[in-house]
Amino acid sequence: MANKGVGIVGCGNISGIYFKNLCTVFRNVDVVACSELIPERAEAKVEEYPGVEILSTEELVADPRIDIVVNLSTPPDHFPVAMQALEAGKSVYTEKPLALKREEGKQLLATAKGKGVLVGGAPDTFLGGGIQTCRKLIDDGWIGEPVAAQTFMLGHGHESWHPDPEFYYKAGGGPMFDMGPYYLTALVSLLGPVKRVTGSTRITFPERTITSEKKYGQKVEVEVPTHVTGIMDFAGGAIGTIVTSFDVWGSQTPFIEVFGTEGSLSVPNPNTFGGPIKIKRMGADEWSHLPLTHAHAENSRGLGVADMASALENGRSPRAGGELTYHVLDLMHAFHDASDSGTHVQVESTCERPAMLPIGLLDGAVDLG
Question: How far apart, in whole angstroms, are the C-alpha atoms of residue 125 and residue 307?
């Protein structure tokens, strides 16, 4: 099986784990080149991974050695970088979100289809051992028919620790677009697509003061909702609740719980790849901890890229593919739209539940054999 060449656009903070895993863990990809607007960032990566070449983005997307462009640019640049790569005939894996606007997401999917290449993106945490095990438990009937789910992502924003937190309070930011993809992707993997949503949103603090060192004391005007509550009607019949917030100082809520006719399942943090997993079945007095059935319990970012490489080689759909990532983008907008309009929103998009990874994978593999 031939390895697929990878080019990485963007060498910021998140790129470190991608470089590590794509260069040293996943065996079906070769990182050929990277590009970065801040030269010293790219130079640091090349020093750490000597086989990688520094190119401009234009040179990278045109390089015949590269099959997949990993788009780690800032969210406002996700769409233009991805379009540039797709138009050059490259498959693209983009950090979350897929794009900032629905129209941009639709254009990416249409362009990829027209070019005969693949598009998809983060998060790939749902492919980790934790959520894959939960998926198997649900599919195998351990909690019966899924009835409902609840998810919580509650914190107080980024201005106390992030060096450049302004974006998180501008269009395309906020808790739903920043962290919602992890929770929504996990839910769609576990329960399938969503057909209808409603939501309520608010801005609690119209102005934020940066207290991280680089920009200490600077003020940020908040332009997007910072507390979002949504209700989801899944096509399969379950009802879900999601709460994402940058307005909460502390919480003891669970990450994700799924309730079925024969039991309840406690799902691990969808921003991680491992456990713990707990279950309380009908008639049981206590919750039980369960072992993982699947591999990739450590930080395996890049797993979705390796799976896309396998999909290219084997002529199948990638698990973290375009329909899934667009459906999640559509849902995030729908919660905001529902709050603004005061109505339910019928979700236009849909997707298939992505296939589970096989049991028994070796480290660094996405396929058996």
Answer: 12
Largest CA-CA distance found in the chain, in angstroms, rounded: 62
CATH architecture of the domain with range 4-121 = 3-Layer(aba) Sandwich (3.40)
Distance, CA of 164 to CA of 168 (rounded, Å): 9
What pLDDT is stored for residue 108 in this prediction?
A: 98
Q: What is the SS3 assignment for 19?
A: helix
Average pLDDT over the chain, rounded to an integer: 96
Q: Which two tokens stand for residue 341?
A: 């309009």
Q: What percent of the chain has pLDDT over 90?
A: 92
pLDDT of residue 296: 96
> Which residues have C-beta within 8 Å of that of residue 183, sequence separation ≥ 6?
151, 153, 242, 244, 255, 256, 270
Q: Is residue 175 a contact partner of residue 244, using CB atoms and an 8 Å limit? A: yes
**What dihedral angle (degrees, nearest 10) is formed by the CA atoms of 316, 330, 106, 223?**
-130
Alpha-carbon torsion (330, 125, 5, 368), positive or negative: negative
**What is the pLDDT averaged over residues 226-255?**
97
| Whole-number Å distance between alpha carbons of 97 and 174 | 12
Q: How far is CA 110 from CA 113, 278, 326, in A?
A: 5, 41, 12
Q: Round to whole Å and give the CA distance between 117 and 61.
A: 13
CATH number of 126-290: 3.30.360.10
C-alpha–C-alpha distance, residues 37 and 33, integer Å: 14
* Average pLDDT, integer, range 86-90: 98
Q: Range(s) for CATH 3.40.50.720 in the chain?
A: 4-121
- CA–CA dist 180, 73 (Å, integer): 19
Q: Residues of CATH 3.30.360.10 domain(s) within the chain?
A: 126-290
Tell whether the torsion through CA atoms of 16, 277, 148 and 303 is positive or negative. Answer: positive
* Cβ contact 307:319 at 8 Å: yes
Rounded CA gap, 192 and 238, in Å? 9
Residue bearing tokens 């070019």: 115
Cα separation values, 166 from 38, 162, 212, 233, 350, Å:
19, 9, 12, 33, 32
Q: Are 205 and 353 in contact (CB under 8 A)?
A: no
As a whole-number percent, the residues of the chain with pLDDT over 70 amount to 99
